Amino acid sequence: KTWSFFTEFSLTNFIRAWDMANLSRAYQNSLIVTGIATGIILICSILAAFSFSNWIFKGKKTFYFIILASLMIPLETLVVPLFISLKNYGLLNNHFGVILPYAAIGIPFSTLVLTEFFKEIPVELRDAARIDGCSDFRYLVQIVMPLSGPAVSGVMIFQGSIIWNEFIIALTILQASSLYTIPLEVATFSRRYYTEWPLVFSTLSTSMVPVMLLYILFQRSYVKGMTLGAIKG
Q1: DSSP E strand boundaries for the chain
Q2: Residue 204 has what pLDDT?
Q3: DSSP 190
Q4: How confident is the model at residue 99, as a pLDDT?
Q5: Rounded mean pLDDT of 88-110?
Q6: How far apart are CA 76 and CA 171, in angstroms?
Q7: Nearest to 170 by CA among 73, 108, 83
Q8: Among 48-52, 94-98, 99-103, 183-187, whose mean pLDDT is lowest?
Q9: Long-range contacts of 194-200 (CB under 8 A, 24+ apart)
Q10: Would you put residue 54 in left (φ > 0), alpha (ψ -120 to 50) or beta?
Q11: What is the dihedral of CA 94, 100, 101, 106, to 10 degrees?
Q12: d(Cα 4, Cα 146) in Å, to the nearest integer?
């Protein structure tokens, strides 16, 4: 029967998929790529958002518009120039060849989200901190960041899940199987005339676990952080 309830529970396909696709190595590669890229996104977007929301400088609106306009560029149009640039810099078949593009693509959206959140922090807190001799960096670390947990958590989960599941850039840049992330290992089960669907779905099921756990742990912060722009009057 094509559609029916399972009659017995078995982990055979999970074990086969884990061994055939070397998922332990793929998990390690995905964790390295996702962790470093997400960290770069958070650091750069937090600093940029703090500048846009607290400083007045020449060309501020122009820079902000450029960041906003970059969100309109389709990912597919970047693959060929990205491949050529990374080849010239010797970053093909290298995890940094995907980490840097992931970070560059994720920073604009994260900056916009965090900028709107930082603008909601009362100006009186900043003025009081400056009167007490607090530097901008100390104000960011000791006052802004503790108040920005929901936004930072939302950005971290959103960008982390995108990078964890990204396929096109990884397929273009990573050619050695030892560097494959989980989406690329899933693709190895698809042949020209036949696809091993039990192994595909087993691999996909295991790959969802880290993202689901991360979302469950930070669910409230994620929802609050991602809806700030929608409720801002």
Answers
A1: none
A2: 78
A3: B
A4: 96
A5: 93
A6: 12
A7: 83
A8: 183-187
A9: 198/13, 199/13, 199/16, 199/17, 199/20, 199/21
A10: alpha
A11: 140
A12: 51
d(CA 154, CA 217): 11
Least confident of 66-70, 144-148, 191-195: 191-195
- Check whether 56 has a pLDDT greater than 80: yes
Beta bridge partners of 190: 195
Mean pLDDT of 188-196: 70
* pTM as predicted: 0.83
Pull the structure tokens for residue 232: 């801002």
Q: Is the pLDDT assigned to residue 231 strictly greater than 50?
A: no
Segment 139-158 shows an average pLDDT of: 87
Lookup: tokens for 157: 């989960």
Tokens for 60?
């501020």
Tokens of 191: 């042949």
Inter-residue contact 173 to 96 (CB < 8 Å): no
159 pairs with which residues across the strands? none
Tokens of 192: 């020209």
Question: Are 42 and 102 contacting, i.e. CB atoms less than 8 angstroms apart?
Answer: no
Residue 214: both structure tokens together:
């991360």
Which tokens is 28 given? 């390690």
Q: How far apart are CA 103 and CA 105, in angstroms?
A: 5
CA Rg, the chain, in Å?
21
* Alpha helices per DSSP H over 71-193: 79-88, 96-119, 123-131, 136-139, 145-147, 149-165, 168-173, 182-187
Q: Which of 142, 120, 145 shows the shortest CA–CA distance to 43?
A: 145
